[in-house]
Specification:
Layout lengths: L11 E16 L2 E8 L4 E2 L3 E11 H10 L1 H27 L2 H16 L3 E2 L3 H8 L3 H13 L3 E4 L2 E4 L2 H7 L2 H11 L9
Helix pairs in contact: 1-2, 2-7, 3-6, 3-7, 4-5
């Protein structure tokens, strides 16, 4: 489900209850996923992968934020973490190898949905990571041989989370740490 079209006025903010939201940039016919957002996040322009979200009108959220500084601060920290996530994902796409990027994405998506079961296809992973589908399949097969994941049609089950996280590039630790930090952290230079 498309939550917001590009260049359209934002009427609602969505608070994800379950599922996974793919934050994407589309340019010149190409798609780049800049972040995955789960139950701890809020979005205004993204694509929802099976799940649920609550929405609130932007002006109502502004009023609530003015009335409750705690909510305002929490949302501010989240927006800062999401900015780090987006910037780091862009860097990851040009700096890191397929295996590390895929392991990182699987760990981030698992964190976002709070589950080791991810309803994703090889085509979807190819699209959001900007990699050839054959390369995704090859890497997932290797992960399965190493007993890191188990795949069935349209679903990936993470079997050895710590080992998969160890295969992930440093972007995974930086991004997940930014969301977990009580204070927002700027990316390292």
């Amino acid at each position: 489900m498309v939550l917001q079209e590009p260049k359209r006025h934002l009427d609602h903010v969505y608070f994800v209850e379950s599922g996974l939201v793919s934050l994407r940039i589309v340019a010149a016919g190409s798609i780049l996923e800049t972040a995955v957002i789960g139950y701890q996040g809020a979005v205004g322009a993204s694509l929802l992968i099976p799940g649920n979200a609550h929405r609130i009108r932007v002006e109502d959220l502004r009023r609530i934020m003015n009335e409750n500084p705690g909510i305002r601060e929490r949302l501010f920290r989240y927006v800062q973490a999401l900015s780090v996530h987006c910037a780091q994902s862009g860097l990851c796409g040009v700096r890191h190898a397929r295996e590390k990027r895929l392991a990182s994405w699987l760990c981030l998506a698992s964190d976002a949905v709070g589950s080791n079961v991810l309803p994703v296809t090889h085509d979807y992973l190819s699209s959001v990571l900007g990699l050839r589908r054959a390369g995704i399949t090859e890497t997932l097969n290797r992960f399965e041989e190493q007993q890191l994941i188990r795949k069935t049609r349209g679903v990936l089950q993470i079997e050895a989370r710590n080992c998969l996280a160890h295969k992930a590039c440093s972007c995974y630790r930086l991004i997940s740490g930014t969301y977990a930090a009580p204070e927002s952290v700027a990316p390292a230079s």
